[in-house]
Fold this sequence. Notes:
By secondary structure, the protein is mainly alpha-helical. 55% of the residues lie in helices and 0% in strands. The chain is built from six helices and no strands.
Amino acid sequence: MRREKLQVTRGSGNVFRDLGRRNADAEQFKAILAAEIIKTLDREHLTVRAAHDRTGIAAADFSRIRHAELGRFTVDRLMSILNRLGSRVEVKIRVHRAETAAHEARA
């Protein structure tokens, strides 16, 4: 039985960056916000219609978020939706030079 060596590449911590997406940081931030919205809906047993009734935000928007169709949403809009659901968002930012971030992704 022959065993082949597998090469393992450590990810950067941002799947969108690892896939070479242009706006990787913004896409990851939007995905994190969308996940928090979904957690809130699940925790409070809210359907998309019930979420619409509570917030005034279109049920279709909640459906898009549940299906990870985030192209129509800005970070600001997702934060606003979380606020209307009764959550507050705290953002901490760390800025790395591009070369440093690329080096850390390879480490």
